Amino acid sequence: MQYTFTGTSVEWIGAKFNTYGNADVYIDGSYAGTVDCYNSSKLCQQILFRETGLSNTSHTIKIVVKGTKNDSSSGYYVDIDAFTSGYATISAITDDCTAEIGYYGYWPAWNDPSDYMTTEHNNNVAGSYVQYSFTGSSIEWIGAKYNTYGSADVYIDGNYVGSVDCYNSSKLCQQVLFSRAGLAYGPHSISVYVYGPKNPRSTDYYVDIDAFIVT
After folding, report:
1. What's the N-to-C CA distance of the chain in angstroms?
2. Domain span at residue 45?
3. Rg (Cα) of the chain, in Å, rounded?
4. Residues 186-206: pLDDT tens digits?
5. 205 in Cβ contact with 124 (< 8 Å)
6. What pLDDT, in 10s, does the model give residues 39-92?
7. Domain final position from 71, 86, 101
8. Is there a single domain that holds both residue 68 and residue 125?
9. Would the pTM count as exceeding 0.70?
10. Chain-centre distance of CA 76, in angstroms?
């Protein structure tokens, strides 16, 4: 039996029983192991074999009836119920000082030991913005909240998705100020604009960029 899939992992789902034997498993033509499918009573929907850490490309899994068995088994059957295949979830963080982030307007860099990599960029001029292009299925904007911070408008792929109030009475670093999951996996962009209006308790209009996290 051979199954072709695209992904970074695969599971063979099947049964174990007292008439079941052994199977050899191959991934992309290379031997990956032998599975003993025997059990004294029938067990269904078992994960008989799992392979992870594959490259995110096309692969094949092949299951070959070996013709050998557990001494307690009365037969050589091998069972195919289903396969699951999928992708690894990987998150990567991009620091505010990385050249991949575009700053439009005057966004000076500041040092704070509580920031990711101890740096942040901020701006208090309405209409100034930051844009970051990424490939993935979710994005998080990491920044600070403080008593001099205002509001920001956020756009995904050029579409407005919400406003963020960045005010807090004391400084809070490395906050998830905005997150968006469920994007179609592929290239996207996030833009963060200094909005202008602010929480009445804030004394200024600053917006802070510390990092972005892509999954």
Report:
1. 34
2. 2-86
3. 26
4. 999 999 999 989 999 999 999
5. yes
6. 999 999 999 999 988 888 899 999 999 999 999 999 999 999 999 998 767 789
7. 86
8. no
9. no
10. 41
